[in-house]
Amino acid sequence: MAPKGKVGTKGKKQIYEENEATQKFYTRVILGANAIYVAVNLLVFYSSSTFSTWLLFMFALAVYVGSYRSMSAMAKPAFAEDGSLLDGGIDLNMEQGMAEHLKDVILLTAIVQVLSTISSYFWYLWMLAPFRALHLLWVTFLGPWFMADSPSAPEEVNEKKQRRQERRQMKRF
After folding, report:
1. Three-state SS annotation for 12-65
2. What SS3 state is found at 79?
């Protein structure tokens, strides 16, 4: 059952600690997925590894580095000279934030990378990321912009009203 009342806000220290735990978790996910991929492709199936196998591995590494560095930059805390915490950084566990999408990209890449040890065709699942980005772009920006009602044509001002307005403007000058 959901708690009643106002949702409490998080303090700087709590955000800092949760961000540290989140970054530690995603570091482990990245290292685990890479360890499995390298172990299977380097040790077990080394003879059947192709250039595309290693190219896709480099692609995954680039995605991991870009996403993780962005998350780290968002969660960077600020400390005072005496060592006290001034700012815990942006909350990485906030719903509907950019960090949520970065975490999704890391998880998608890890899942695809591990599944690709079974078959290289699993790399096509990574196409879900651009489709998701296009969907978000449409839902949040393009769709409302294209579907917005066009401003209605101004009503015709009858001649009497127009003369009155002209007279009022002439009196002002």
Report:
1. HHHHHHHHHHHHHHHHHHHHHHHHHHHHHHHHHCHHHCCHHHHHHHHHHHHHHH
2. strand
Positive or negative torsion for Cα 89, 92, 97, 100: positive
CA dist 89 and 79 (Å) reads 10
Within 13 A of 71's CA, how many CA atoms are on the CB side?
Answer: 28
In a 13 Å sphere around the CA of 135, the CA atoms on its Cβ side amount to 7
* Prediction pTM value: 0.74
Q: Mind listing the pLDDT tens digit for each residue in 15-52?
A: 888 889 999 999 999 999 999 999 998 788 777 778 88
How many other β-carbons are positioned within 10 Å of the β-carbon of residue 63? 20
Rounded to 5 degrees, what angle do the CA atoms 56, 62, 67 make? 130
In 3D, which of 105, 116, 20 has the Cα closest to residue 67?
Answer: 105
Q: How far apart are alpha carbons 91 and 164 in whole angstroms? A: 59
